[in-house]
Model the fold of this input.
Amino acid sequence: GSEQGGFRQGRSGDQGGFGTRSAKPGQGMRGTGAQAGGRQGARPGFGGQSSRPGTGEGGRRRTGARAGESEGFNRENEKHRDDNKRKMNQERDKRSKKDLIYSEEDTPRKSTGRSGRFIKPEKKPAAPAEVEIKTITIPEKLTVRELADAMHKNPSDIIKKLFLAGQVMTPNSELEYEEAEKIALDYDILCEKEQKVDAIEELLREDDESEEDMVTRPPVICVMGHVDHGKTSLLDTIRKTNVTRGEAGGITQAIGAYTITLDGRSITFLDTPGHEAFTAMRMRGANSTDIAVLVVAADDGVMPQTIEAINHAKAAGVEIIVAVNKIDKPGANPERVKQELTEYDLVPTDWGGTTEVVPVSAKTGEGIEDLLETILLTADILELKANPNRNARGLVLEAKLDKGRGPVANVLIQKGTLHIGDFISAGASSGKVRAMIDDKGRRVKEAKPSQPVEILGLSDVPSAGEVIIAHETNDEAKAYAETYKNQHKEELIEDTKMRMNLDDLFSQMKEGTLKEFNLIIKADVQGSVEALKQSLLKLSNDEVVVKVIHGGVGAINESDVTLASASNAVIIGFGVRPDPVAKAMAEHEGVDIRLYKVIYQAIDAVEAALKGMLAPVYEERVIGHAEVRMLFKASAVGNIAGSYVLDGTIRRGCKCRITREGEQIFEGDLASLKRFKDDVKEVRAGFECGLVFTGFDKMQVGDIVEAYDLVEVPRT
Done:
């Protein structure tokens, strides 16, 4: 063939192809066309092949060895293609053995048979989500943040929801249980009220004691009644000793306990104050006693405190014996007293009832023996018993801080026997009994049921009414006191920038709809603290809330002043004085300290301050009437009502009410009052005047003007 290959046009317009430049192998460029120079219908050639080997018109005609080399090269290519095809088939066979291939979530996915290709699993329709109703337990009061934590919600979400409902709250705002319950329901959450577990009550719970261990104990008598009806004098007569002494303000300042012996049998008497202020102590006294002796003066009859004492005794479930005192006085009328008692379900036995009524005279001693015999007879009917062979348990009647002896508690033993050296606890205080003194001032080594004693050895001054318990070890006593402390944590005190003074309370607390009056009470004995607290808390009303943020026994100290300064409180001292450091600090900090010896004075002073804090109340006082009889026009003020004063007086600056044919058309201030052309302060009945009203000049002849003043009414 020709040495040179060229570009040749194929027949019938077939595409041209590249031939080879040289016939020598390796020196020419092989054709790449699909039909390189071949006839129409020629198969794709390699190196310009036509449908017949060596005869393609687009390529060079091959002969001999050249054609053989080309065929060998083609066989190698075919072998290579066969190897690749075989490998692909083997790989496909491996994959075809696994019809299902699983994903990480163990979801079966069908194979397509091709590398890396899978058919997506069909999506199953999602089941409708069920609303999960949760239940949470919340206390009676909690903050927004605490509610959010219980609901596992963000506090800001709750605050936003409340804001949209018209309530402005912060995370620390307090919610009542009912409010919290409504909020939780919006989130499909149900609420249950938290059941408070009284840890102290659980510790005090005891099993019933065996009847074999019980022995008869003396009765405990509580003497109750109205102030100045002769309770202390009656006790003095019973004891035959001169223990009665003057009471400041006529009120017993501390609870005393006395034991007497009659026919070899003991009777323990408790003296509780009769004034209404000492409700708390009287209730404690009633709870600690078996029989209540109600003292009623024969000349006074049943008084408010007498009724209160009756109610407390009934609530405590104690027997009532009525001692009608002062029968020696000229105006005494015991029968009238009996009649009054029947109104309160106390029917005398001689009238067919069940209440023992004994006429007595503390002054002459008449009827005292009859009263004591009646007490012992009633005690026999009640069958009073206790187990003396067990750890002691009793009640704190009174407690105080003695400068030389430390905390001192006046205790009534109710069960068991208390010994010197016993480990004891009373409320938040604990300790070891160092000494015991009976009601006659003698040191004793043990105290049995129904016996009152004075105890030394406590770490702190307990509150009156606390239960005192003897423990096996000091650790048990301390653990009880610690539990009590944890359960009776003091309420948080809100800080304020102001300092409070009783004299200027009103001026300091004008702002705000709810006013709080914080007090700190310090007294010589715990009973006085409680009595003052109860009295002052009763002074709270809808506008002013009295809060006793702290009460304690002993002198006013630096700690009290610091607390008062931080909490904007007034310190009330009853029978105590501030120490020098506290006094100087109070003057520097601007803390008001008020000292009293009589409870009435303390109550009256605080009550007066509270009245000053109340918003003033005004009432209208009509001062006169006038009739409009002529109208004058003035460029500066508009219409002037020429009027005739019908009655009373029309004063400049007063309030006016204008009526027309019985209907009110204006109410406001009188801007100007003239007599002819002169400004005057007032115009009396029978005289004419000119009236100008603030913001109103639509008067007509015949209108009636009613003038009145607003007078402040004292708050009670």
Summary: The chain is about 25% helix and 30% strand. The chain has five domains: 134-193, 216-385, 393-490, 514-612, 617-713. The first helix runs from residue 65 to 96.
